[in-house]
Amino acid sequence: MTDFEKYSSNMSKLFVKGRTLALAYDHGMEHGPTDFNLNNSKPDFIFEIAEKTKVNALITQIGIAEKYSSSYNVPLIIKLNGKTRLSSKMISRQVCSIKRAERLNPIAVGYTIYPGSEFESKMFHELSKIIEESHEIGLPVVVWSYPRNERGTIRDTSTDILAYAARIALELGADVVKLKYNNDLEGFKWVVHNAGKVKIVVAGSSLSDPKVFLHNIVDALKAGASGAFVGRNVWQAKEPYKVVEALKDLIFNYEDPDRAYERYFKSE
Ligand code: FBP
Fold first, then answer.
1. Model confidence pLDDT, tens digit, residues 45-102
2. Boundaries of every domain in the chain
3. 70 CA distance to ligand 1 middle (Å)
4. How far is CA 259 from CA 107, 153, 255, 266, in A?
5. Which of 66, 112, 144, 205 is the most buried (most CB within 10 A)?
6. Are 247 and 240 within 8 A, CB to CB?
7. Position in ligand 1 atom list of the atom nearest CA 205
8. CATH tag, 3-264
């Protein structure tokens, strides 16, 4: 298989008919165990959800991927950088090489940038090399583009700033950009427009009422997003499997959010 064929094959695993749903589970690094309970702190719990629901991918840091993935048949997106919430410096450096990630045969690698941070140029530089090397071996790159001010205290999700975040991913050569959705359907169309050929996926954010969450995802899709890479709204939910099945209906079957809510949650 040529690198281009490998790249195309990976992209077609990640996007089915142009749409995608992945589970994000890199929070142990980014937020710490504060996000977890006795169940979802166990990586096996998440791998089982990902395997049984056949989501397009599971996103983890390298350590979890190395220790758990061999027991499951789950496509991986391996995050190559990370930071903790214990540091106030808004820089996330590479913690895993492409060579190390490649041993696990991921379908993509991921990297977070914080546009607006005083360290943005360091992250852009690192990401640029990662994109070059990943593409050489047929690996797509997903960029978490999360604008922050210098101390990380301002998380600007205005349409202009999100459009900028999307555009930076295009300028740097990303294949997919992950953004926070700002609940502004019309505004988000401008965000999607600025990403050009880069596919947009949205994060889930902190746990919210399932009905509100499903509506937000559908609004992002209507604005042109290609899917969602979601963490807490799945594995912190009372019934994670129902949330994933509802999301699959919205994303792949273009289901109405109210009908999906009725089907999966109304009896609660
Ligand atoms: P959620 O769906 O749980 O919001 O996860 C999305 C995500 O991008 C994770 O991949 C990442 O760990 C986390 O959010 C980072 O969030 P933040 O930078 O806002 O703390």
1. 999 999 999 999 999 999 999 999 999 999 999 999 999 999 989 999 999 999 999 9
2. 3-264
3. 25
4. 32, 38, 7, 10
5. 144
6. no
7. 4
8. 3.20.20.70
